[in-house]
């Protein structure tokens, strides 16, 4: 099982690097949203600083959602999903390896880009640790929850809108906790409570979402 999962991870990494647009587009979207926002509200440093926690998290949430629309689509089109379902190996393990590989390559890049964009909005440097930690805990949860919607809509030609309608309500707790942690840090308060809740949600989704993703794929493929 370990060798098979390793080969699957390497395969997913190669496929992602062969389609650089799928990796770069969410990052460009994230950067553009944050960069254009000051042009809309004006160069008011205090206002930008106050709005930056919510803005960064909303932009990150939408960027993650943008990257998940085609998560299983190529596997569905070339028949790989059917082979996964016929495999004696647990489908939940396979989809978990795929989603986490996707997050390591695309989501981690988003986390690393966020401090630069946060400084553009005037966020104090002492808040950057909370920003990075909250995104490290929150973005895997967003990816795992979004993968459930991607599994349910994989057979639809234009499933992006339906994916957003299905998943955005599930994203609300992560958005509230992530922006709340950053807001608390900005005000000089402790953000440990919000970060602990983000960690708890990450563990919960890591445990349960692979089974929900597997069920969604079986429904979509018709197995």
UniProtKB/TrEMBL annotation:
Any one GO CC term of the record: plasma membrane
GO process annotations (BP): cytochrome c biosynthetic process; cytochrome complex assembly
Classification via InterPro entries: Cyt_c_biogenesis_CcmB, Cyt_c_CcmB_bac
This protein's record includes keyword Transmembrane helix: yes
Bilayer topology: Multi-pass membrane protein
Claim: Cell membrane is one of the keywords in the record: yes
Primary location class: membrane
Transmembrane segments: 21-42, 54-72, 93-119, 131-154, 161-182, 194-217
Molecular function terms from GO: heme transmembrane transporter activity
Compartments, record wording: Cell inner membrane
Pfam families associated with the record: CcmB
Protein keywords: Cell inner membrane, Cell membrane, Cytochrome c-type biogenesis, Membrane, Transmembrane, Transmembrane helix, Transport
PANTHER family reported for this sequence: CYTOCHROME C BIOGENESIS B-RELATED, HEME EXPORTER PROTEIN B
Summary of the function given for this chain in its UniProt record: Required for the export of heme to the periplasm for the biogenesis of c-type cytochromes.
Family: Belongs to the CcmB/CycW/HelB family.
Protein name from the UniProt record: Heme exporter protein B
Organism expressing this protein natively: Pseudomonas duriflava
Biological classification of the source: Bacteria, Pseudomonadati, Pseudomonadota, Gammaproteobacteria, Pseudomonadales
